[in-house]
Amino acid sequence: MNLNAGFSRLEFRDPERARALRDKLAGLVNEIDDGVTIMHVCGSHEQSIAKFGLRSMLPERLNVIMGPGCPVCVTDLPEIDEAVLLAQNGATVATFGDMFAVPGSIKSLAEAKAQGADVRVVYSPQEALRLALETDKEVVFFASGFETTAVATAAAILSKPAGNFSVLSAHKYIPPVMEIIAEMPETRVQGFLAAGHAATITGWKLFERFVERHRIPVVVGGFEPLDILVALVKLTELVCDGNLSVFNAYPRCCTENGNLNAQKLLWEVFQSEGGTWRGIAHVPNGNLRLRGKYSFLDAHERFDMDLTSLLEESAPRLTQDCICGNIMAGIKTPSDCPLFGNECKPQNPVGACMVSSEGACKIWHEYGGHVIFGDEPGSIPESKQADCFTKPGC
Amino acid sequence: MKQQTAILHEKATLLRQKQVLLGHGSGGKLMHELIEKVFAAHLLPPDMEMLNDSSVFCVGESRLAITTDSYVVDPLFFPGGDIGKLAVNGTINDLAVSGARPLFMAAAFILEEGFAMDDLCRITLSMREACDQAGISIVTGDTKVVNRGKCDKVFINTTGIGIVDNAVKISSELAKPGDLVLINGDIAAHGMAILSAREELEFESSIVSDTAALDLLVKDMLSVSNEIHCMRDLTRGGLSSALNEIASCSKVGIRIFEDRIPIQDQVRGWCDVLGFDPLHVANEGKLIAIVMRDHAEAVLSNMKSNAQGRQSAIIGEVISEHPGRVIMKTNVGGHRIVDMLSGEQLPRIC
After folding, report:
1. What is d(CA A65, CA A331) in angstroms, rounded to the nearest whole number?
2. Per residue in B136-153, is it b (16+ CB within 10 Å) or e — as a string?
3. How far does the CA of residue A24 sit from the closest CA of chain B (Å)?
4. Which residues of A touch B200 (CB under 8 A)?
5. Model confidence pTM above 0.95
6. Residue A116 structural domain
7. N or C end of chain B: smaller count of CB under 10 Å?
8. How far is residue B315's CA from residue B313's CA, in Å, rounded to a whole number?
9. Residue A274 within any structural domain of the chain
């Protein structure tokens, strides 16, 4: 058996290099009088930051905030309502696990399922395609995610799906919302940490125009703890030096022009259009919608969705008190919200940010967010079995 | 006034879910809420403790332990075991971690019309083997058959009775600052083995469930130390649920060290790929013990000499700070909270 204690052998989780980067970051931030505020726009970045406890290693005056980086969280209420309505009216709705429990205006897909609707959690659009082959019922893939995930949906659309398959797209496109955040008067952001996987598709060059227009540097970063620490060091350096440029700190995946095949698939199937991002704003070109030539696979075209029938069911809940929007805009943090940890908990979520594993509130609730426990050395006996773990067959 | 508001708030929280959700069976927060606010509130005698794996009670001079568990795992057969083996070992382990020596077991079967008799025989044989290994007998049972579609193939309930030595005092509220946290091996194999056996996920691995009876391991541990304060077997909800329950019952903090927690490379890898925290993933042959610091080395070396404890390790300590919380020093050197699983991670894993 190949056993390994903890994560010690992984190159991008190396504790010594992590400590070196932490010290370097502390030195850099020390040179800046007012501290530095950096925004990342990706739930997976927040997951890694929280899960590996990186905030507890960062200098106090380096403020790393999460922007609108959770595609599920920015899905607008009516979009979820449409999926609920379809499920309640007899369609099989397939969706990713993150979307399953997000409250709509009246209920979540999980609640619709408990009431008898056919809702399936799938791990890929291909799984939804297979579902459609196994049944005569209408199968609607309620698709969410940024341009990374949208490529997989595009591939499904182009695979000549069964006649009972359609897509309800809640896909979002991240570059336009970065512009919105950069232009918000409340914005304190001095540097953007861009999501490595999205940039792997789009290429890092895409951000050059953004840097030029908004005079904020961008660093593309990966998701392992060392990836993030390296990206933060680089971004802090750019901020210190007033160097307005794009830096690719994820060269093992991301290239200058990205994955051209994936881009071709994406724009063959989707076009961008304006739409409301929950809690944030109307984002011009922020939504990805199926092009006209694929309208026969577009659930919007195939079904008549009258949301008023759903809204008559009961009064909306506490959602109007939720500050998810301000959290996603980086103006507030989860602990600023009076509902956080009180009325709003992962098992009883009010806002989407408390549901999705990429939502800031869920992540902070699970891993502690800004709560810092200090760096006291551990006082458990030295491990005597360390050798054993590295010997296969032991 | 404040208390009243709190009660009203609790009711509101409970009422917010009009139906039972799958997450209510996850072993995490939703399930604890359901047990506390519905089952325990109405069914548990006020003088009984909740949240231990078994209940220990006195009959004459003897202390007996009783536990019950239902098994609905899907698929019925998975790498490393099947529902029958799980049903026997799971109940043995619930007794064992209360310090009880398992004696007798009852088994009830709910069968779906049309279920293959061959499969049923295979499961029954596997139960027999597991019983023989642990030296326990199934002495009574019950059989029900329901219409096709009214249950999924077979559900099994087992109830176990064991006897607890008078000197043994193990309970979730007995952890003390300074105690050390021991585990008997690598985590998260069962949950990932079940997942790999599910058709829809299409991932191939050689991960095998860790399902095993832990009664002999516990017996050995108890023979070297009378200062084992708490013990829990790690099932649904994984290591995080067990640690959080102890932290909360004992009103202490627990700090664990990521680099000390044994995990197989492929288990960790698949958890990463699928977005699971291995601390939340189910186990079926693992336990943690909270042991007085001075006794920990002796207990550890004893555990390592047992077949079910070769990879045992000290993974953390009980602290007086942060009562009710579990925190972890991550391998890269940061600190974070280890919370209980809050929704459903994977339904029907045991």
Report:
1. 9
2. bebeeeeeeeeeeeebeb
3. 15
4. 122-123, 127
5. no
6. 77-173+259-311
7. N
8. 6
9. yes
Range B54-168: architecture per CATH: 2-Layer Sandwich (3.30)
Cβ separation of B332 and A53 shorter than 8 Å?
yes
B261 vs A contacts (CB less than 8 Å): 5-6
DSSP one-letter code for A306 = -
Instruction: Give the tens place of pLDDT for each residue, B188-240.
Output: 999 999 988 886 666 778 899 999 999 999 999 999 999 999 999 998 889 99
ipTM value of the model? 0.78
The tally of domains found in chain A comes to 3
Gap between the Cα atoms of B84 and B71, Å rounded: 9
Strands A165-171 and A139-145: parallel
Nearest to residue A196, comparing CAs of A172, A226, A170, A157? Answer: A226
Residue with tokens 């997942």: B195
Q: Are strands A270-277 and B81-82 parallel, antiparallel or unpaired?
A: unpaired
- B 173-232 residues inside an 8 A Cβ radius of A: 180, 186, 200-201
- pLDDT single digits (tens) A198-229: 999 999 999 999 999 999 999 999 999 999 99
- Measured CA to CA, the distance from residue B133 to residue B125 in angstroms comes to 12
Per the structure block, which two tokens stand in for B42?
């109405």
Residue B187 burial by CB count (10 A; 0-12/13-18/19+): exposed, middle or buried? buried
